[in-house]
Amino acid sequence: MTTLAELPAEVMRAESRIRPWILETPLEPSPMGVDVRLFLKLENLQHTGSFKARGAFNKLLALDPADRAGGVIAASTGNHGAAVAYAAAALKTRARIVVPVDANPAKVASIKAHGGEVLFHGNDSGLSETFARRLAQTENVPYISPYNDPEVVAGQGTLGIELVRQLPKADAVFIALGGGGLLAGVAAYLKTVWPETVVVGCSPENSPVMIESLKAGEILDLPSLPTLSDGTAGGMEQGAITFDWCKALVTEYVTISEDDIRQGMRSVLETHHLAVEGAAGVALAAYFRQASRWRGKIVVVILCGGNVGPDVLRSAL
Fold first, then answer.
1. Is 7 helix (H, G, I), strand (E, B) or coil?
2. What are φ and ψ of residue 187, in 5° steps?
3. Of the candidates 107, 267, 240, 83, the residue with the CA atom closest to the CA atom of residue 177
């Protein structure tokens, strides 16, 4: 099993493996920083509209071709499923995606549009993950976890390599925190290059499962209320590798109200003319809450995805 000390090297291996298959997304200066050099990492412009393509490609490309040829199974509230479907189609194999029964319809449509076969199970992402993993074991095909897999986490971490290429340093990086794959991968790499960077994990108040688990020192089984940040919502698998990694890497964490998530989404649309999903709004809203603290500093907010349906966007506006 990959250790935290080994994770940065795995991120660099992932970079070499997936670079031909993914985009280097822009790092855009933002006028929303008041006396702050604020940059937005536009991962909403990545293939399939989110950072998840990075982990999906790294995991599928790391599989033995014979194992990959039989298809893969994943569980997802949407973005991971679309990314696995896209990567599987690019690599000419089959992808079945298990989603909660109340998954965002726009994201379910995206999974199907990218060639994925959708299976509905449970009303929480944790239940969907358990079912998908069991199905994969029964059929002896690879299971592609949204976060509980070192190769998936390493793939997400390639975003950190891009940040270092695009910026000489950052004093703080704000990252949406659900299962912890993006934060763990990016922070593990950044801490080897920018050790003093503050990593802020950002979650909705309606579903702060990882944050509450970190506070408690163990993975908790907590209910989640509906949230605009559906990409970070839901439970976590017991024994998830990202828990200990996030515990070591998250400098601090912030929970964000639904009204503040809406304001974050609106601000990106009004200022940068980009539609982003709730998880991206969470990270920007967390920055707004702390903006005065970072005067004279360099701050990055990762806009982790742009897959927002018209109804949700209308609600945010």
1. helix
2. -65, -40
3. 240
Q: 12-42 burial by CB neighbour count: b if 16+ within 10 A, else e?
A: bbbbebbeebbeebebeebebbeebbbbbbb
Which whole number is the average pLDDT over 245-259?
Answer: 96
Collapsing DSSP states into helix, strand and coil, what is residue 11? helix
Query: According to the model, what pLDDT value does residue 294 have?
Result: 97
Q: What is the pLDDT of residues 106-150, one digit of tens each?
A: 778 889 999 999 999 988 777 888 899 999 999 999 999 999 999
Q: Contact at 8 Å (CB) between 275 and 222?
A: no
Q: How far apart are the first and last CA of the chain?
A: 45
Token representation of residue 292: 């005065």
The number of beta carbons lying within 10 Å of the beta carbon of residue 226 is 11
Using CA atoms in the order 250, 254, 259, 261, what is the torsion angle rounded to 10 degrees? -10
* Residue 168 to residue 148: CA distance in whole angstroms: 31
The residue type of 307 is N
Residue 255's DSSP bridge partners are 203
Q: Which two tokens stand for residue 183?
A: 């934060």
List the one residue out of 299, 283, 313, 289 whose CA is nearest residue 203: 283
More confidently predicted of 29 and 103: 29
- The predicted structure's pLDDT at residue 158: 98
Each residue's pLDDT tens digit, 67-113:
999 999 999 878 999 999 999 999 999 999 999 898 878 778 889 99
What are the phi and psi torsion angles at 276 (to 5°)?
A: -125, 160
Secondary structure class of 15 (helix, strand, coil): helix
**Rounded Cα gap, residues 25 and 302, in angstroms:** 11
Reduce the secondary structure of 43-85 to three states and give it as a string. HHHCHHHECHHHHHHHHHHHCCHHHHHCCEEEECCCHHHHHHH
What percent of the chain is modeled with pLDDT above 70?
100
pLDDT of residue 103: 80
